[in-house]
Amino acid sequence: MGMADVVGGPAGPGSEPPDPATVDLLGILAYGELSAFDRLAEDARTAPTMTGRAALSSMAAAEIGHYQLLEEHLVRLGVSVEQAMLPFVAPIDAYHASTAPRSWLESLVKAYVGDGLAADFYREVAGWLPDPTSGLVQRVLADTGHSAFAEREVQAAVAESRQVRDRLALWGRRLLGEAVTQAQHVMAERDELTAFIIGGSGDLAGIAGLLKRVQTNHGRRMVTLGLA
Amino acid sequence: MGMADVVGGPAGPGSEPPDPATVDLLGILAYGELSAFDRLAEDARTAPTMTGRAALSSMAAAEIGHYQLLEEHLVRLGVSVEQAMLPFVAPIDAYHASTAPRSWLESLVKAYVGDGLAADFYREVAGWLPDPTSGLVQRVLADTGHSAFAEREVQAAVAESRQVRDRLALWGRRLLGEAVTQAQHVMAERDELTAFIIGGSGDLAGIAGLLKRVQTNHGRRMVTLGLA
A149, A160 in Cβ contact below 8 A? Predict the structure, then answer.
C-alpha cells in the first residue's frame, strides 16, 4: 500500500507522514467502532425491555465516542478516516454478517465477548505504538461501564436453563472462531501491519503467545457469563 | 394518571413527589431521544458515503447522551425512566412510522427539521418548569453541532435539482403536519400536561402563539435548507 492511499492532507510543516502500520491499526479500530455502533443499534431494537434497549443503545453510543477520538487523531496525523478504514470494511462486515445474533441473549453475548476480544488484542498492540497514538488507543479501549448489564442479563438467563447455557456457550466459541478467521484475512492482506505485529510480538512464537492470551481472556469472560 | 404509575422509588427523606406534568415532559423527551437514536442509527445505514454514515451515527449517539441526562434526572426525582416514557411510546412510534424516510436526503431533512421542531417546542415549555429541571431541559436541547452536515448536504442536492427541491419541500411540510398530529394526540390523553402547557402559555391564545412561533422557526429552517 502506498502512503498516497491514506494521506488526506499535510500533517503540518516538517511533520513526517505516519507509518502505514499505525494508520492501519487506527483504521481497523475506527471501522470496528463504527460497525459495532451499527450492529448494537440494530440489536437494541430486539430488546425485550426498555431498560435493555437503552443499555444496548448506550453501548452503541459509546462506540461513536471512540470513533470520534480516532477520527480526530487521524486528522492530526494528516490522514482521512475514510481512507484509513477502507481496507477493513470488507473483513469487519464479513465478521458481522457471519455472527448476526438470532436472539437478544446472543446479542448481549456478542456485545460483551466481541468488545472484550477486540480490546485484548488492541491493548497488546497499542503497547508497541509510539505516543500519543498508544495513549489514545488505550483510552479508546477503556471499558465503557456498560458490560455489567450484559453480565447480569446473561448470568440470569443461563442460571435458569441448561439448554440456553449450552447454546450460548457454542455461540461464544463461534464468535472467537469468526474473529480469528477475519483477523487472518486481514494479516494476509496487510503486509506492513503484519510485519509490525510480528516485530512487536518478537517473532512467530510471540504471536502464538499473544493469541494464547487472547484465548485465555476469552475463556475468563465465558466463565464470568456462566458459559464455561 | 396517578403518581403511583410513575414513581419508581423514594426521592429521599422529606422530598415532595415531582408534579405529573414535569414527569410527563421528561418522559416524552427521554423517549423522543431514545427513538430518535434508533431511527438515526437505521438511517445512517443508507448513507451513500462513509462520512455521511459517521455524521448520522454521531447525531444518533448525541441523542443517547441526552437520554442519559434525562434518566439520571428522573432517578433523582424518584421516578423510573421506563415508567415516565411509557405513555409516549405509542405516539412517538406512530410519528416515526408515518415519517419513515425513503431516501438519504429525506433522512437528513427529517433529522434536521425534526430535531429543530422538538427543540423549539420544549425550549418554550422548559421556561415554565422549576429549576433544576428547566436547566437540564435547556442543556438537553442544545444543538449538538451535527446539523451543519445535514445543511450542507441538503443545500447541495437542492441546488442541483428542482425536482429534488420540490419533493423535499413537501416532505418538510409533512414532517411538521405529522408532528402536530401526534402532539394533539398526546394533549388529548394527558390532562395534567395539557393544563401545564395552557397555564404556561397563559391561555388558549397563548398556545396559538406558541404554535405560530414553532411554525415560523420551521419555515426559517426550510429556508436554510433551500426548501422554501
Answer: no
